[in-house]
Amino acid sequence: MRDKPSGLNRTLGLGLVVVVVVGNIIGSGVYKKIAPMASELPSPGWVLLCWLLGGIITLFGALSNAEVAGLLADTGGEYAYYKKIYNRFFAFIFGWSLFTVIQTAAISSLAYVFAQSLNSLGPLPTLLPGLASFNIGGIFYPFADFSVKLTAIFLILGLTLVNTRGIRAGAGISTGILILVSVGILLIVVFGLSSPQAELSQSWQFATTNQQSVTPGAIFTALLSAFWAYQGWAAIGYVGGEIKDATRKIPRGIAIGVFSVIIVYLLINATYLALLPVPVLAEIHAAGNKIAAVEAVRSFWGSRGAFFISILILVTTLGCAHATILASCRTYFAMAREGLFFKPAAKLNRVKTPANSLWFQCTWACLLVLSGTFDQLTDMIIFAVFIYYGATTLGVFILRRKMPDAPRPYKVWGYPVVPAFMILFCAALVINTFFARPREAMLGLVLMLTGVPLYWWFNRQKTVPETVEQV
């Protein structure tokens, strides 16, 4: 299949594809999410099993997505795929969901953790303390921890500016950051597991610390945290128009990237569980202002270890936020070119980067920083994203019927069992989230559905850009 013209530069090879995949995945979850999981599942064995289960299910979804990407690769990722699998309306709702919930909230939450880590290194000055209790409907507290939120906003603004300089430069920065992160995580695993404080055998104990049985609902709720840590791999599809031989390199890059992350997560979380008992992790979650990884490293390296891990978290969240900003805006650019997003987002700057799309994304992400807490944002993201993971996986079956003879550089392993299992799991997780996290589910759903009237409004616009303009 020949690459389709998009107006963008095709400069990314397989190595950078893997970097973008892994860079979009490894972020705050590798350091923070084991604490809420331990709070839901008071058993180290079950917590680690959920990390493995989350990785396997993510890999199933990634392999299913890879078949679709190999067949239909283009700028915009699932937005481009859904137009062929379903229709223009469903594709728009997906793209609008990325903008209102999935990708912008991911950017916001990553920037928020970056700011929290910076605050732990040296307390930021308190700003607007008199407005800290101001709220909207008892849900949103925009001025609570305002110094942290303002720092997160400045980070988003800075990274957006960097990404207007071109995707090659952005991918190069991601490569450098990913190397630093990988070395840092390896040091924690090696020194953590070899320290006298580590008890590796306790990582695999399935007995609960509160003597209560583990329920399916608790497993699903814990998986919300694990899936946040694995979230982001699909972002490589958004830059499909800038990848050389995209139909072959996207499937390979997804498979290599996700499998690598599964191994990393199992190693690092086994290390945390060997160093910190589950009740301690639950207390860290209850405290609200602590990070599990910081306390784990502090246990064997003391205050110097806490400083080291805080720096590593800063670098990691910086890298993941950067990679997410880099990839996500390409979908809104693709939508705008077809008249289904704000017209200025269809323009490229002098280095053929969708700069206006980047700034639209930046503005909404900054507003989301003010809207909620880290865990509230991430649960909302996972609820929304699994609706579309299921839709993409269903597309494997639909496209095999619609386009049975089309060349497929990759066919999903285990068809039809693997994609069928993924679809059923996505449905179960979405339903469970309505019961376990009703507020986050409803907020996510409302934001997604604001796209319905906007689809009508965009379609009323008479001028649909036929060419890519430059600014």
Describe the structure.
This protein has 471 residues and is mainly α. The protein has one domain (14-460): Amino acid/polyamine transporter I, CATH 1.20.1740.10. Helix content is 70%, strand content 0%. It contains 17 helices and no strands. It has helices spanning 14-25, 29-32, 34-40, 44-72, 78-85, 88-121, 146-163, 167-193, 216-230, 246-275, 278-287, 292-337, 355-371, 374-402, 417-436, 438-449, 451-460. It is globular.
Distance between the termini: 31 Å
Kindly state the percentage of residues in helix: 55-70%
Structural class: mainly alpha
CATH architecture: Up-down Bundle
Mean pLDDT: 83
Output the helix-strand order: HHHHHHHHHHHHHHHHH
Shape: globular
- CATH homology group: Amino acid/polyamine transporter I
Share of β-strand residues? under 5%
Could you tell me the CATH topology label.
Amino acid/polyamine transporter I
Q: Sheet bearing the most strands, described?
A: none
**CATH class, please?**
Mainly Alpha
Return the domain count: 1
What would you report as the Rg, rounded to the nearest angstrom?
21 Å
In total, the number of strands is: 0
Enumerate how many helices there are, as a single number.
17
List keywords for this structure.
471 residues; mainly alpha; Amino acid/polyamine transporter I; disordered C terminus; transmembrane helix; AA/rel_permease1; membrane
How do the strands and helices of this protein lay out in sequence?
Elements: H1 14-25, H2 29-32, H3 34-40, H4 44-72, H5 78-85, H6 88-121, H7 146-163, H8 167-193, H9 216-230, H10 246-275, H11 278-287, H12 292-337, H13 355-371, H14 374-402, H15 417-436, H16 438-449, H17 451-460
